[in-house]
Amino acid sequence: MMSSIEIEKTLYRIIQGRLRYKVHDGLVLYIHEPTPELLFESYEVYDDAYERAYTSGVFVKQEILPLLLENDYWTPLDDKEAENLQKEIEEKKLECFKNFIHKKQLAVLKRQLDILEKKWYKASSKKNSLENITCTGAAAYTRSVFIIEKSTKTEDGSPYDWKEVPVSTAASFYKNNTIPEKTLRKIARSEPWRGMWNGGKGTELFGIPFSQITAIQSRLCSYSRMYDGVFEHPESPNEKLIDDDVCLDGWFIYQKRKREKEKKQSEIDGMISNDKIRNADEIYIMAKDKDDAAQIQSINDPTARNVARERERKIDQLGEEGKLRESDLPDQKRRIQQERNKMFVESRKGR
């Protein structure tokens, strides 16, 4: 949990666009966020470094894959696992949102989510485990060191000469003090930034044109717009849920699926021009592929999906030569029995 002091300290670092680096009592450096001009120049440095590495015989990315396979560092199954884990993570976040008021259950779900995210990171990072020995890795490192070298200044604003501390040390310090996304989200929904944001929208928030702001400032603005959308939403969740990143992510997933379902329902309604068909108990829509079938299926309510699963099981039990009457379907049997019960009750009333 971040204190208000920590929030303000990080906020003003973002506003200033620089990180204070105290080497020792007599030396304080400031690592500034790169300007657009410096970023442009850094890509030329990247290209030159890549060319030098390639000429020197350093591996290209495509050549690394056989090494990964031979040494059991990575297989295509790892990518598939990462994809499946990402889907599980999404479902778990949705569960967290739905169980927000059940604190014990929520705590269990969050522990499960943490395990899934660690598994996902492990699976998804395997393919890039040898990135540092490729031309791409060498060029990226050269570019990052160049940016730190050119953007680090002394207290009076003059460029540092790198006599007492190596560039690589400053680069490591900057990397270790990267502002995590959860901190940016906390700042974006908290004071004093909310007041600055609401009062300064449409103006030069950081004293410069928007095209000149730093990458971290841009991300803070993006999160601020995201929270604007949450606060203004007609189904906006309560403040405590908004403060919970995991549950709010689940709320976003819930809203996204709800919109997709409504959109698909609207498309299907547009396809059905006959009022008799539209008002029928059951409507069958031909799907183009598996994804289309999944979207059509998602429109059904839980009861309808359960009926479909029951029918599939019943049909599977018959085998290839089996025959099945509609009245033999489990849901139809229940409907017939309910009608008989209703008729019996009405006949008793008549007596």
Can you put this structure into words, describing what you see?
By secondary structure, the chain is mainly α. Among the domains are: 34-73 and 129-178, no CATH class; 300-351, no CATH class. The protein contains 16 helices and 3 strands. It has helices at residues 4-16, 36-55, 61-70, 76-98, 103-125, 135-151, 167-176, 181-188, 193-200, 215-232, 239-242, 245-271, 275-278, 290-299, 302-318, 330-350; strands at 18-24, 27-32, 152-153. The chain has a 3-stranded antiparallel beta sheet with strand order 1-2-3. The radius of gyration is 29 Å and the shape is elongated.
Provide key terms for this protein:
single chain; 351 residues; mainly alpha; 3-stranded antiparallel beta sheet
Low-confidence stretches: none
Gyration radius, in Å: 29 Å
Biggest β-sheet, characterized? 3 strands, antiparallel
* Shape estimate: elongated
How many extended strands? 3
Termini, distance in Å? Answer: 70 Å
User: What string, H for helix and E for strand, traces the elements in order?
Assistant: HEEHHHHHEHHHHHHHHHH
